Amino acid sequence: MVKVSILGSTGIIGKNVAFTLAREDTVDEIVMFSRPESLDKAKGETYDMYDALAARDIDCKLTPTNDFNDISDSEIVLIAAGIHREKGMKRLDLAIPNAKIVDYYSKKIAEFAPNSIILVATNPVDVMTTIALKASGFKKSKVIGVGNHLDSLRLKNYFSRQIDINSSEVHTRVIGEHGDHMVPLLSSTTIGGIPLKYFVEYVDLDITSLVNQLKRAGNTIISKKGATEYGPAFAISNLISTMITDTHKVLTVSSYLDGEIERVEGVSLGVPAVITKKGVAMIVPIHMNDIEKREFFEAANTVRDATNEVLTNLDI
Fold first, then answer.
1. Residue 134: is it exposed, middle or buried by C-beta count within 10 angstroms (0-12/13-18/19+)?
2. What residues have CB less than 8 Å from 259, skipping those under 6 apart?
3. pLDDT tens-digit profile of 201-223?
4. CA–CA separation, 77 vs 74, rounded Å?
5. Is the dihedral of CA 122, 128, 131, 132 positive or negative?
6. Which residue has the higher pLDDT, 90 or 174?
7. Is 262:296 a contact under the CB 8 Å cutoff?
8. Lowest mean pLDDT among 15-24, 141-150, 208-217, 240-249
9. Is residue 87 predicted with pLDDT exceeding 80?
């Protein structure tokens, strides 16, 4: 029996992940954990989802609860709780208040679901990944942040749409911070098996515009509709399904580094990793050009400074 728990299940991300994951029909039970004052809302969400799932003959069990005992025996526990970004806010603006939430939940996961994998979606996700790691005491392979997985999917989508080619032909990746210091690996991007640097000689492709669009993506969506929901929900659901099905895909997640990439250590950043049912099986080596290396080091320094500030405030 495959069981996944979502902490913060009534928020925009939490409820969308629950429904997206349930629709994939790879999970037997989804525990929708909420605060006591939100329990009725969690129940209402499950009733609504059951009605929709019936049309697809899906029998996934949905369990609304505010009892931590119900998350026991979970393979994966998603932390999606926290204060969300508003228009004009940077992800790092949320660091201190959200760290308190992630710290609390991570300790509860360690107590009630000690054999689970912790998946962190709360922003700023790279900082929160380290908070969850230290608070839970888990091995670093079992504490994973959503990281740049969504950014990588967005960049893939932008290339696909601009040159009118199937997205499966685009192979690209974004690493570093899930924020202003994200690093698109353009030097290793291929389209139809052709390196990007050769492909741009034959098509009208504005790379600078694409990268700027990528970095503004979250704020652009928030400014127009108030929140991002479908993209993050599908990206997170995809990560969870990859772990459950043990397909050993290479996805870009936030993972605590001990020198695996360019000797960077003591910080969680988005890096390509082999994802399995046991978590991060290995961090995949990266080839970067000089510009990408410099940007990656800048991302590491920015996130490390923010993380240390949060750890000092929380006294962890």
1. middle
2. 265
3. 677 777 888 888 888 888 888 88
4. 7
5. positive
6. 174
7. yes
8. 208-217
9. no
Give SS3 for 123. Answer: coil
Q: Is 171 marked active-site?
A: no
Cα 53 → chain centroid: 25
Catalytic choice (84, 149, 171, 178): 178
In sequence order, the 6+-apart residues with CB closer than 8 A to the CB of 280 are: 140, 141, 142, 144, 253, 255, 273, 274
- pLDDT digits 0-9 by tens, 236-253: 999 999 999 999 999 999
- Round to whole Å and give the CA distance between 307 and 98: 12
Amino acid code (one letter) for 199: F
Helix (H) or strand (E) holding 297: helix 290-314
Name the phi and psi angles at 267, rounded to 5. Answer: -155, 150
- Count of alpha carbons within 13 Å of 13, Cβ hemisphere only? 23
Chain centroid to CA 171:
19
